[in-house]
Structure formats: structure tokens, C-alpha cells
Amino acid sequence: MALSVDSVAAMAPDQSSLAAARKLLRPGSWPVRAVDGAGLAWGECQGSGSAPYRIAVSIDDLGYKCTCPSRKFPCKHTLALIWQLAERPADFATMVAPDWVIDWAARRKPKAAPVPRRAEGPAPSLAAAPAEPERDQPSEARSAAQRERVRAAREESIGRGLDELDRWLCDRLEAGLSGFSAIAHEQCRLLARRLNDAKAPGLALILDSLPGMLLALRQEERSGWLIETLGRLQLIAAAYRRQALLPAPLREDLRRIVGWTVERATVLADGAALSVAAAWRVIATASEVQADGLRRLETWLVRAGKPGVEPRFALLLDFVPATQAASTGFAPGESFEARLVFYPSAAPLRAVVAERLDVAGDPVPLPADPTPSMALERYAAALVVLPFLEQWPLGLRDVTLVDTVAGLMVAGEDRSVGLPVPRAQEEELLPLIGRPMTAAGLWNGWTFRLLAADTGIGPWYQEAGR
């Protein structure tokens, strides 16, 4: 197999793994890097402990093994070793494979297939590498049948979870919503646990986050927001039961909301997926620990604005264990040229970096609609095709942050439309009051959270995290 940086990117489970692997490309981190000339590569990478991690890779099919305790597959050490082998193969010594590499290769190959020789004989040449074993079609059929049984069992379990959700929604409405704020945490946590047990982790996270989002709103907004949110949950449950009737992109959105995942490699291999090559600007990064024990890493990007071209935003989204120190690998204000591939969706937003092309020559300006009204029309259009939408990025040109009796609002020149900002963000935004700017942020139908702004005195970015 011809190795390349693209093959490394295709293997990576997420963007943070690629960023972590990039930091391990220093030769000083690798006391050992070698190949045997017959399709095996191995290395030792010095970690935080006294003993280095050992990594073995089969070049023919990119099978791998690492002794680190990472829960990601492949881990950053494996990605870094393959990355170096693709870019700098001359840095790898050619020698007979050590016993631990040969033992690993012997365990992963069929017994009838030859394995590399030990130190008593010369290393075989690459030309003498054994042919790949024939496909075991009966075994593949059994594996496919087992995957289908697992999928069907999960679908049945999710159905039971949706029944629980329906009953919970009916109970909330019968009891009335006026006192819900006082019991929101207890009630939502109870249902979230049941939805997790039903293998619908996406819905469980929505329930877990509901109390905090509710209490962050102004008192007068809470009833309307709660009715809208509970209505969206009911719509999700009803639509999931009828997903076979939905257009394919909307069905993909719905399944991701409930908790099904799509592998990065699957997205990159989808020839029909939306692919956009452009200059991109990082406008925000965020790190949030979720109730399921994972850290959610967000990177928000915007495409360089052009006259007559609608604003294009993209979200890079990764998940790592909450106990693992991790960052997105990007910094607000950074600009670069890249080709992004978007997940299938009725309103494509989440994407992966398929190919990083170059550093952008000029700073990327924020794309924006001429008026807040036009931006809201764009939000409404997205809501039409994706009715489960929770929030949507907007770009606003020639707006000002205004201090009103109801709180801070982002308004256009004529003040005809004002978008309130979240109460939790008001203190952070005080330096922007009265300054003309082009702003980018997230609108959820109730509040507009600023992510970035270009002002007359320079760019502004929201504080790191949430």
C-alpha cells in the first residue's frame, strides 16, 4: 500500500487525534523507528512513563497495535508512526523485526500464512511478501448477520426508549409547566438514564442539558422556550418511528440526533458528500464535558465571504474521554485553506477536514448577510428543511451591540430587528457596546451567542470554552 498523509487523515478517529499525532512528529520522541522490508514497521514513542510505548504496523493493510492505554483506535502514536513513514521513510532503519513485532504479526495472520523470520536469517525482500489470504465469505456472511442482529436489537431498544419519552412528555403536560423549573434537574436526569439504557445517548444528552439551558434564560422567556423544546422532542420521537418515509439526508440528521454515529472514514469515502475547498477562518473553539463522560470539542469555521455568495459555516466536532487532556488543535483567528467534506444532512453543517491545502494568504473576512432580517430568513429556511434544528450560525453585517432595558441586543442600523444575547455572555460583551461591527454567532430562536466580530479596532472572539 502506498502511504500518504491522506491515508493517515482517513484513519484518524477525529480531528483532535490528528492534532495530537502532529505534535509527536518530532524525531526526539522516537528512540526507535524501523521497517523490515517485508511489510512491517514499528517504533517506540517516549510517553510520560519510564517505558516507551511500542507500536507495530502492517504496511500492507494498515493493521496496527500500540501498548498505550488510549481508548481511541487508532491512537495518536499509531497515526504519528504512519505519518512519519509516509513523509520521511528514509528516517526508518531497515532491520530484522524484533520478537514482539513478529509475535504480533503471527497472531493477527492466518496460521497458514508465513510470518517474518527471526534474527537467525536475512530479512526477506519486499517482492517476496506473501499474497493476501483469500476472503472467507462464510465468515463475512456470519459477521454481517451478527451486525444486523445487533442493529435490530438496538432499534427495538430505542423504540422502547421513545415510548418512555412519550409518557414523560404527557406527564409533564398533565402536571403543568409552571413549576417545572424546580424539578427539572431530577426529572430530566431520570429520563436521561432511561434513554441511555435504551441506547439513545443523543436524546439523553438533550435531556441532561435542558435544565441548565432553561435556567440560563430570562424568566419571561422560559415558558415559551420549554414548550418549544418539549415539542421538538415529541417531533423527534414521532419522526424516528416513521424514518423510512423521510428523505435520506433528513433521516441521517434524525439518527445522529438520537445517537447513531457515522465514522469519519465513511464520510470521507462518500462520493456524494458535499465537498468544499476554500479559505477558512476559525471563529471559535469550545470544550465542554458532557454528562456521558465525554469531552465535546467544537471548532467553528467560516468560508471567505464573496459578493453574491451565501455565508458558509462549518463545525468540526470531536469527542474524547473527559479525563483526557485535549484541545481542538485550532486557535480563533487562524486562517487556512482546506477541503472540507460535510456529513450527509438536510442542512449540511458538521464537517471533517479531508485535505489541508495551505495557510491562507490573507485574513479571511467574516461572511455576513446585509441585514439581520435576511439572516433570520436564512435561519427560517434551514428550519424548514431541518425541523429538529436547535441552533444555526448567522453572519450579521453593519450591526451594533445595544444596551436596552431588556438586556443587550445585536441590532442593525435601523434598529428594526434586535437579537438578544444570552445573559451569561453580557459581561463578556461590554467592550463591544456601541461599536459598529460584522458579527458571527449562533441563533437558537431565542438568543444570539456571539462567537466572533470584526470591529474598527480589530477582531473579537468569545472567551475559550463555554
Structural class: alpha+beta
**Number of helices, where a helix is a run of at least 4 consecutive DSSP H or I residues:** 12
**Biggest sheet, spatial arrangement of strands:** 13-12-11-14-15-16
**Count of domain modules:** 4
In one word, what is the shape? Answer: globular
Largest sheet: 6 strands, antiparallel
- The tally of strands reads 16
- What's the gyration radius in Å? 26 Å
Mean pLDDT: 85
Helix content: 25-40%
Strand content: 15-25%
Instruction: Give the CA-CA distance, first to last residue.
Output: 43 Å
Helix and strand element order: HHEEEEHEHHHHHHHEEEEEHEEEHEEE
- The poorly predicted ranges are 110-133
Key features of this structure:
OB fold (Dihydrolipoamide Acetyltransferase, E2P), 36% helix, 4 domains
Question: What can you tell me about this protein's structure?
Answer:
With 466 residues, the chain is of the alpha+beta class. The chain has four domains: 5-119, no CATH class; 143-257, no CATH class; 262-359, OB fold (Dihydrolipoamide Acetyltransferase, E2P) (Beta Barrel); 372-461. The chain is built from twelve helices and 16 strands. The strands form three sheets. Strands 13-12-11-14-15-16 form a six-stranded antiparallel β-sheet. β12 (407-411) and β13 (418-420) form a beta hairpin. The protein is globular, with a radius of gyration of 26 Å. Mean pLDDT is 85; it is low at 110-133.
Topology overview:
Layout: H1 5-11, H2 15-22, E1 32-35, E2 40-45, E3 53-58, E4 63-66, H3 76-87, E5 93-94, H4 99-108, H5 137-175, H6 180-197, H7 201-216, H8 219-241, H9 248-258, H10 264-269, E6 275-289, E7 294-303, E8 313-321, E9 335-342, E10 350-359, H11 372-385, E11 392-404, E12 407-411, E13 418-420, H12 426-429, E14 437-443, E15 448-455, E16 458-461
Parallel strand pairs: 1-5, 8-10
Antiparallel strand pairs: 1-2, 2-3, 3-4, 6-7, 6-9, 7-8, 9-10, 11-12, 11-14, 12-13, 14-15, 15-16
